[in-house]
Amino acid sequence: CSTAAPSLSHASQLMNHPDQRIVFMGTPEFAVATLNALVNAGMNVVAVVTAPDRPAGRGLNLRPSAVKVRALELGLPVLQPVRLKAQEFLDELASFQPTVQVVVAFRMLPEVVWNRPPLGTINLHASLLPQYRGAAPINWAIINGEHVTGVTTFRIQQVIDTGDILLQERMEIGPDETAGELHDRMMKVGAELVVRTMVGLIEGTLIAQPQAAHDTLRDAPKLTPVTGRIDPNAAAGMIHDLVRGLSPHPSAWCLWHLPGKEPTHMKVYRTKLTESPCGEQAGTVRIDGDRLLLACADHWIELLEVQAEGRKRMAAADLVRGLQQRNGIRILPG
């Protein structure tokens, strides 16, 4: 998608100049790794833009974003606009005279923001664009059973996640890897990719390429509660992918039905595929020792980590040991 990626060893030499002024935009922990990488590479980050503090916890006390916390530790100016088109914010942003803006897990920018810097606004996306454009690329790649994904840096343009590609890095997805585990790996790989991208931009060695045309594009829309419901009528492999694609957050869930009681919600965080064909009706729960098995459309699947309604996350074996009724349990279809 570009010329050869520049070496990270050149970063300090190229970027530690006052005329290269970077404004960084991001909010969650995923973005902190990239902010750290830019600073550690000696790049001239002049300001950080992040979300306003949000109420959180039982007391609903205002809590700063992970990016704000780190930016203050680094002694960087922090901007927290409510409205990105507000003139006060635009004036303050312009006062930092950025030559380039770097965006990681922030929010959709208006053109008046992304189109200002001479080198443009660079975004890090957690997929191999053009596949999995949208809000939840890590989750959907796993939910859809992909074996390979990656990270992409690209120039932001009007239509979200469609800008010209600068660099990409492919990553394999493990057969039992969860979204949380892949997120943590991508956080580091993506941070390094952004630094390489910045070096290439300053060297002038990167040639942006339009995103390739594809007959079939898979999107990554925002996750909803409906997304996570487990339907035992599906194949075991599909259920396994759904569970790990939503673990640890927001998590897959099912309707757990004990005989003679109302169904309750149960979250499922980890499963294990078995090679045992299933002759039972889909949704049947079988207890084998301290193992919790679910009948799917084709095979049994073992539930390894769950959270029953009103209880903490636990090993399924612990749930089994506390059951008074072991027969006739079902997971209801969607």
Structure, explained:
Helix 2 (29-40) runs parallel beside helix 3 and helix 6 runs antiparallel to helix 8 (236-245). The protein has helices at residues 11-15, 29-40, 66-73, 87-95, 111-114, 137-143, 179-203, 236-245, 316-321; strands at 22-26, 45-49, 54-56, 61-63, 78-79, 100-104, 121-125, 133-134, 148-155, 165-172, 219-220, 252-257, 264-277, 285-288, 291-295, 299-308, 314-315, 330-332. Strands 5-2-1-6-7-9-10 form a 7-stranded mixed β-sheet. Strands 12, 13, 14, 15, 16, 17 and 18 form a 7-stranded antiparallel β-sheet that branches. It has 334 residues and is of the alpha/beta class. It is 26% helix and 28% strand. Strand 12 (252-257) and strand 13 (264-277) form a beta hairpin. It starts with 10 loop residues before the first helix and ends with a strand. The longest helix is centred in the middle third of the chain and has 25 residues, at 179-203.
The gist of it:
With 334 residues, the protein is α/β, with parallel strands linked by helices. It contains 9 helices and 18 strands.
Strand proportion: 25-35%
Structural class: alpha/beta
Structure annotation, total helices: 9
Q: What value does the Rg take, in angstroms?
A: 23 Å
Total strand segments? 18
Strand order of the largest sheet: 5-2-1-6-7-9-10
Mean pLDDT: 93
Order of secondary-structure elements? HEHEEEHEHEHEEHEEHEHEEEEEEHE
- Provide the helix percentage: 25-40%
Distance N terminus to C terminus? Answer: 42 Å
